[in-house]
TrEMBL record:
One Pfam family matching this protein: PNPOx_N
Stored SUPFAM superfamilies: FMN-binding split barrel (SSF50475)
Protein name per Swiss-Prot or TrEMBL: Pyridoxamine 5'-phosphate oxidase N-terminal domain-containing protein
Coiled coil stretches, renumbered: none
InterPro entries from the UniProt entry: Pyridox_Oxase_FMN-dep, Pyridox_Oxase_N, Split_barrel_FMN-bd
Amino acid sequence: MKTVTDVETLERLYGVPGKSSVLKEVDHLHPAYRPFIERSPFMVLATSGPGGLDASPRGDPAGFVVIEDAHTLLLPDRRGNNRMDSLRNILADPRVALLFFVPGVNETLRVNGRASIVIEPSMLERFTFDGKAPRSVLRIAVETVYFQCSRALIRSGLWDPARQVARAEFPSPGSILEALSPENFDGGEYDRELPARVKTTLY
């Protein structure tokens, strides 16, 4: 199988980037890019560490990632599964990438930078939601910001209601865990308890 093994071959294959693709990348949170963060209720956080790579979904009401200034973002770390994959990675390698989505908008915004894990009480209090503070807040020093064109989301039809898939067509969380478990795991019981558990542990 023929593969690409050097940059020169890659550049011959794809050609040079267009002028707009170069202009779009800046080293700060330009005012034109702020709405992509302020209106986003969902983003993906990518990290790297000794155990490999991780991409973690993060969501909250729009504006949950706060623009502190032109070079700083603040991201509260809400309750999850306590695996702490992203946080473990950041301790070993602070480099992060964030990809912001806004429902109905086909462009996305990518932010690269370096993160630190803040546990200052006043910072945690600042991000209290529904009476509960996060255990930590990621402070992200922005290095590059770039908005992705619409092609990928247009091709995928991500926001097209006609392409939505019924959840019932997929295995339930309990049945997946039961299939993966070498022990006697009761998937049915897990599924019955899951809605209430998610509701009470959302924050």
